Amino acid sequence: METTGNRVSLGEIFRTFLIIGVTGFGGGMAVVALVERVCVHEKEWIGHEEFMHGLAFGQFLGPFSLNACTFVGCTLRGRIGGTVAAFAFILPSFLIVSFLSLLYFRYHELPELQAALQGTNPVIIALILVAAIGMGRKIRGVEPWAIALLAFILAAFFQVNGLALLVLTALWSLARARFRQEHR
Amino acid sequence: MGSLATIAWTFLKIGLVFVGGGYVLIPLLHRIMVDQYHWLTMKEFLDGLALSQLTPGPLAILATFVGFRAGGFAGALAGTVAIFLPCTALMVFLTRRYERLRNIRLIREVLDGVVPAVVGLVAAAGWKLGGTSLVSLRDILLFAAGFAILQFTKVSPLFVILGAGALGYFLHFS
């Protein structure tokens, strides 16, 4: 799927990811849910399927949240787009943490951030849930649903590492694809 | 205090290991920063970890905090750029090839096969956070309001999240 008729400007990419960087409380999945909402639904920069593929291999490469941003930027405007998105996303965190580090190492105290977090946490959970519901709607067929459910149960109740789950699923899909090829 | 080159090189190495998955980051940083280089005390490290969790952005922004301790603002900059460089470069590299790779049937089928697992992981992250964060009636009300707004309206998440933060701050003092 070609995503864009007219090219998205680098300034627009920068602004969008800067805002995502400012509001990306909770890291990881919270940011992914945010990127999904803004880039797939609001701006329609990238298709659902492409985004999900990007997430899948973004998870293998370390910081999930940053990778999701890099992926979207890169899909829109190539190397420069990816770099701009990654830079804009990290910039607010970098400035905030630098400033707080300065205060911390001077006064050896953490500012009163916990209170604000008590307000954002429930909303972030809602954001993640809304994203999961939206993504779940696109799942078709019994086997994909079984995989989704199994992944959920293993990760939520048995603390199985997400990366391990993805590797296992990839191997399973690979084996199945090979099997199908041979039996045709 | 470490020299800028040492800081940058150290974080670049951490960034490379980090590519394999974010799970090793905390024990690795701890061993190198606290035990090996003595850039931080144990308490400072834990406070930095809390700080990274409380601020927006990825947990790896801990590199900014540690870099700051090791070499001031320049150290923070060097540490941050170095730790995120390998994964961003690799991600850009892979995404450029994704367009071509996805046309290969086998790769496409594997990618499609992994998607449901990602959905399960997203849901699991919400579930786990919910178990630890939704503890009072106020939390549940905020959650319900946030869910309704995000699910049924097109209000930007920027306002919803920052608004909830302001509300939390305000309610805390009332």
UniProtKB/TrEMBL annotation, chain A:
Spans traversing the lipid bilayer: 12-35, 55-76, 83-107, 113-133, 145-175
Molecular functions per Gene Ontology: chromate transmembrane transporter activity
Keyword Lipoprotein set for record: no
Signal sequence coordinates: none
Pfam families on file: Chromate_transp
Key word GTP-binding present: no
A GO term from the CC aspect: plasma membrane
Protein name as catalogued: Chromate transporter
Organism, scientific name: Geobacter hydrogenophilus
Lineage of the species this protein comes from: Bacteria, Pseudomonadati, Thermodesulfobacteriota, Desulfuromonadia, Geobacterales
TrEMBL record, chain B:
InterPro entries, per the entry: CHR_Transporter, Chromate_transpt
Name of the protein: Chromate transporter
Gene Ontology terms for molecular function: chromate transmembrane transporter activity
GO CC annotations on file: plasma membrane
Membrane topology field: Multi-pass membrane protein
Record keyword Cell membrane present: yes
Family label: Belongs to the chromate ion transporter (CHR) (TC 2.A.51) family.
Organism: Geobacter hydrogenophilus
Pfam families: Chromate_transp (PF02417)
Membrane spanning stretches: 6-29, 74-94, 106-128, 140-171
Lineage per the UniProt record: Bacteria, Pseudomonadati, Thermodesulfobacteriota, Desulfuromonadia, Geobacterales
Main localization of the protein described in the UniProt heading: membrane
Keywords: Cell membrane, Membrane, Transmembrane, Transmembrane helix
Record localization: Cell membrane
Glycosyltransferase is among the record's keywords: no
